[in-house]
Amino acid sequence: MTRRADRPGSLRLHREGVLTRRIEALETLLDPCALCPRACRALRRSGDLGTCATGPLPVVASWTPHFGEEPVISGRRGSGTVFLANCNLRCVFCQNHDISQKPRTFRDSAMTDEDLAAIHLELQDRGCHNVNWVSPTHQVPALVRGLDLAIRRGFGLPLVYNTNAYDSVEVLRLLDGVVDVYLPDLKYADPAAGRECSRVPDYPDRAREAIREMFLQVGDRWTLSPDGTLLRGLLVRILVLPNDLAGVEESLRWIAEELSPRVGISLMAQYYPTHHAAQPGRYPLLQRPISAGEWDRALEALERWTAGDHRYIQDFREAPGYYRPDFSDSEKPFPDLDDFLPR
Ligand code: SF4
Predict the structure, then answer these.
(1) Which residues line ligand 1 (CB under 6 A)?
(2) Residue 19 lies in a domain
(3) CATH number of domain containing 186
């Protein structure tokens, strides 16, 4: 049985009426929009669109139990992923570019709060361990509204915030207690890489501020359920890029020295050239998978800068072919779900 302290934080905030006030505060950030560090100032409720090309209503590309997250997230019954459409970054190698960078596809598919609440309840009914908002940054107010409604109707799973980490600290403070598990990327250590590969001038500073705030909220210790899935905690994902564009060692050193060497780390080998990075000559440094030498150096850095047990390491040989989504089938974007099942 789950102890009271291990229950999703959003249930308590809902019961105390705090969630309603958080939603109101989040919605003030929509008009003019300062939901993410781009601070486009678009009047989104009036129909203006900022860089993320998303209005005030939720736009969801796909929702499904997903078995390909880290075992502590997917467990045996899957993580209830809700893939939000569009994105506040413009990563030239985005694996999910079919849903993150083609806003016209989703122009007429905005949902209601009722729809969003129903998605949360459906994923709970399908046995998922958690609900996992994937790329939620630009849609946070709508998501929390949908969550509040879902809780009124019996929703009670832990909430995973699965983000590119280009998040506003102000927004994250309003999510304190709403989010149970933070699952941020830390994409680059060098602003030049963020400028070239994700089209933002200040990725490392903004992402580090955001991850520091997540750390302040949930710390470096994990709370696990009896089935071994994460109920509360922080797990930082570092995708190794060719030519060390990710700055793996620098990011790991920053986490160890500024936060804690015990912060959970997921080291990812799944990079393959796709989207703009697959176009010949356009991004020469991104046009190949990572080499065995690059992967070994990332592993050595992981060894050097982390302590504790919370580490996940992808399989270098299998990962690039393993995690390729196909969002043309929105109900089953990952074709080999059985391959992900824990053996
Ligand atoms: S959430 Fe979208 S509109 Fe708002 S600041 Fe970020 S990119 Fe701009």
Answers:
(1) 33-36, 38-40, 42, 50-52, 88, 138
(2) yes
(3) 3.20.20.70
Is residue 125 in some structural domain? Answer: yes
Residue of 26, 48, 51, 106 with the most ligand 1 atoms within 8 Å of its CB, for mutation: 51
Query: How many distinct structural domains can be found in the chain?
Result: 1
Closest residue to atom 6 of ligand 1, CA basis: 36
Render each residue's pLDDT in the chain as its tens digit; 343 residues. Answer: 445 557 899 999 999 999 999 999 999 999 999 999 999 999 999 989 999 999 999 999 999 999 999 999 999 999 999 999 999 999 999 999 998 998 888 888 899 999 999 999 999 999 999 999 999 999 999 999 999 999 999 999 999 999 999 999 999 999 999 999 999 999 999 999 999 999 999 999 999 999 999 999 999 999 999 999 999 999 999 999 999 999 999 999 999 999 999 999 999 999 999 999 999 999 999 999 999 999 999 999 999 999 988 999 999 988 777 676 766 666 777 655 555 544 3
Residue 140 Cα to ligand 1 midpoint, Å, equals 11
Asked if residue 343 belongs to a domain, the reply is no
Atom nearest to 88 CA in ligand 1: 7
Secondary structure in 3-state letters for the chain = CCCHHHCCHHHHHHHCCHHHHHHHHHHHCECCECCCCCCCCCCHHHCCCCCCCCCCCCCEEEEEEECCCCHHHHCCCCEEEEEECCCCCCCCCCCCHHHHCCHHHHCCCCCCHHHHHHHHHHHHHCCCCCEEEECCHHHHHHHHHHHHHHHHCCCCCCEEEEECCCCCHHHHHHCECCECEEEEECCCCCHHHHHHHHCCCCHHHHHHHHHHHHHHHHCCCCEECCCCCEEEEEEEEEECCHHHCCCHHHHHHHHHHHHCCCCEEEEECCCCCCHHHHCCCCCHHHCCCCCHHHHHHHHHHHHHHCCCCCEEECCCCCHHHHCCCCCCCCCCCCCCHHHHCCC
> Is 45 inside a domain boundary?
yes
Domain range spanning residue 280? 4-331
Distance 334 CA to ligand 1 centre (A): 28
